[in-house]
Specification:
Layout: H1 9-23, H2 30-37, H3 41-53, E1 57-59, E2 65-67, H4 69-92, H5 97-107, H6 113-122, E3 146-147, E4 156-162, H7 164-167, H8 170-178, E5 186-193, E6 198-203, E7 206-211, H9 212-215, E8 218-222
Antiparallel strand pairs: 1-2, 3-8, 4-5, 4-8, 5-6, 6-7
Helix pairs in contact: 1-4, 2-3, 4-5, 4-6, 5-8
The chain binds zinc ion.
Zinc ion binds at residues 83, 86, 101, 129-131, 133, 167.
């Protein structure tokens, strides 16, 4: 492809999710995309077929989905625009942390690469988004973080990263924000209760209970 064609907003959304799963070495399969996109599996199948036709992805014999070079470039561009938009909303426009992901979802598709570059110039320290997830090419900036579930009881940590998988759950992000559980905050890791499937942390003197599935999406840094 000599001239880069901009994918549609829907295709961009798919590309962004595929990029994120591939970044984390997760197999990219239709069921996972249906979950993330909150659409039915037949809808995913139809969209993926169009994306294969248009050269954004390929489908392997085992049904895993892979980005082509053009798909990877378009996906990285979308993820970068999404994260820069989040940073702009959070740092310049003071949009509440719990809202920036949703708001960025609305704006990211219309941000030109030129404007994205200006945002990056305006803001400093743009290696991670307000949730602590790395911008494309900045993956090494999160490589030394510790999964919360591997933290030691009684130790104090700094919350560093809330994975993309849960960013889109607005109610959950509200809960996080209400309990002060946003990247940068200090927390004490208390315990994992496997029987109860919960994890307890202390933020600002208050116990915050998290389900195991949610806790799996958090990373911390030792203080
Ligand atoms: Zn984010």
């Amino acid at each position: 492809m000599s001239q880069e064609i901009r994918p549609s907003p829907t295709v961009e959304d798919y590309l962004g999710i595929i990029y994120t799963l591939a970044r984390d070495n997760e197999p990219v399969i239709g069921r996972k995309l249906a979950e993330w996109m909150e659409v039915s599996p037949p809808t995913v199948t139809a969209t993926i077929q169009r994306m294969v036709r248009d050269g954004w992805v390929t489908m392997a014999p085992d049904k895993t989905i892979h980005l082509t070079d053009a798909g990877r470039r378009a996906a990285a561009s979308l993820v970068r625009r999404h994260m820069l938009t989040e940073l702009l909303l959070a740092r310049v426009l003071n949009v509440p942390w719990s809202r920036v992901h949703e708001e960025a979802d609305l704006l990211e598709h219309n941000l030109s690469p030129e404007t994205a570059a200006r945002v990056a110039e305006l803001l400093e320290h743009t290696n991670v988004c307000p949730h602590g997830n790395p911008l494309p090419g900045q993956e090494s900036s999160v490589s030394d973080l510790i999964p919360l579930l591997e933290a030691s009881p009684g130790q104090t940590y700094r919350l560093a990263r809330v994975h993309e998988e849960i960013e889109r759950h607005g109610d959950l992000m509200d809960y996080f924000e209400q309990h002060g559980l946003v990247p940068g905050v200090q927390l004490e890791f208390v315990q994992v209760l496997p029987a109860n499937e919960t994890v307890t942390v202390v933020v600002d003197g208050r116990d915050v209970a998290l389900g195991l599935a949610v806790a799996r999406c958090l990373w911390v840094q030792k203080i």
